[in-house]
Amino acid sequence: MLLLIALLLAAQSGGQLKVCGVDWPPFSYAEQGKLMEGISVEIHQEVAHRLGMQLTLLELPWGRCEQYVNTELADGILDNAPLPGCYHSDLATAFYPLAAYVRSDSPLQTFSWEMAKGLKVGMVRGYDYTDRIKHFTGWVPIKAHSDKQLLLMLEKSRVDLIVLDYFSAPILSREQDVKIRALTPFLDSTPLYLCFGKQKADLLPAYNKALQQMLDEGVLDRIYLRYLGEDYRTLKEKQERMKAAQ
Q1: Domain membership flag for residue 52
Q2: I want to staple 191 with a disulfide (CB 3.0 to 4.6 A). Which of 37, 92, 103, 137 is the partner?
């Protein structure tokens, strides 16, 4: 039955699935305008393979990617928050634990919303930060075009701290040769999904079944272990505990 549903849906869509996203190691690595590898790339390539579909993954600035989906130039956004208008699977395929980062020579050690008042805080323009972060009015947000630009702003002391996700921060730090340190505790965390536009919402039943199969078979665990040294189930449980403690 799953195979029949998948074949019917693939036939309806012409077997093509076009998804856009940003360079976000270790979940997606971009090369010449395409997302070539990474945790999320491998997961959704495998789902598409199981559904008999051809997946194209484009690298686009976040705002343009949203426009592509809204105008049906693309079918979905990779690793997006579950916002209104996002048609997503039951299982999250990525996680977005956000921390405040300072230069390694900063005297700051711990984060609190009280201590952040009045500080200049670097964030990326257009990113879907959690409500807790977006709606905090005590600090002065300074917007950058990318995570890499955030690191350069921090290095030049144009901001007091920056908001980065815990997984990609050490990778970006090495790439940009900027030494940084995370303050504890985390600011917030959210699960992420491949968010389809409404034009592909009917794909979700088959997509959900394929992802659940991959979880049951240990495929998600193996992909996460190769990139992060921890399996999918462990990180999912950590995410749930973090949210419950807030």
Answers
A1: yes
A2: 92
pLDDT at 231: 94
Q: Do the domain assignments include residue 83?
A: yes
**Residue finishing a domain among 189, 213, 233:** 189
**Of 189, 206, 223, the domain-final residue:** 189
Identity of residue 222: R
Q: What is the 3-state secondary structure (H, E, C) of 7-32?
A: HHHHHHHCCEEEEEECCECCCEEEEC
Q: How many CA atoms lie within 13 A of 157 on its CB side?
A: 3
DSSP string, 122-160: EEETT----HHHHT--SSEEEEESSHHHHHHHHHTTSSS
Q: Using CA atoms, how far apart are residues 12 and 70, in angstroms rounded to an integer?
A: 20
pLDDT in tens, 9-24: 444 444 899 999 999 9
138 pLDDT more than 60: yes
CA distances from 102 to 24, 115, 232 (A): 20, 13, 28
Amino acid (1-letter code) at residue 105: D
CA 207, CA 48: separation in Å to the nearest integer? Answer: 8
The domain containing residue 65 runs over which residues?
Answer: 16-94+191-245
